[in-house]
Design brief:
Helix content is 42%, strand content 25%. The protein is of the alpha+beta class and 65 residues long. A two-stranded antiparallel sheet has the order 1-2. Helix 1 (5-13) crosses helix 3 (32-41). The radius of gyration is 12 Å and the shape is globular.
Length: 65
């Protein structure tokens, strides 16, 4: 059975954080924030970390410890 993007991202978050670029490269996910929102609706405790690299800010997500 093929896992959905949401389920792949859920599994990824169990061991490490995820950024939009990682989600796109590994899972073909252009809408990481939407998948994170869906996971939060399922009561997953996910935190947002704002990351700035080369003057560009983006969100990285991880499970709360």
């Amino acid at each position: 059975m093929k896992l959905s993007q949401k389920n792949l991202i859920r599994e990824h978050l169990k061991t490490k954080s995820i950024s939009p670029m990682t989600a796109l490269e590994k899972y073909g996910c252009f809408r990481l924030a939407a998948r994170i929102s869906e996971l939060r609706e399922e009561d997953l405790d996910i935190e947002t970390i704002h990351t700035t690299i080369n003057g560009k800010t983006f969100a990285t997500y991880r499970m709360k410890p």
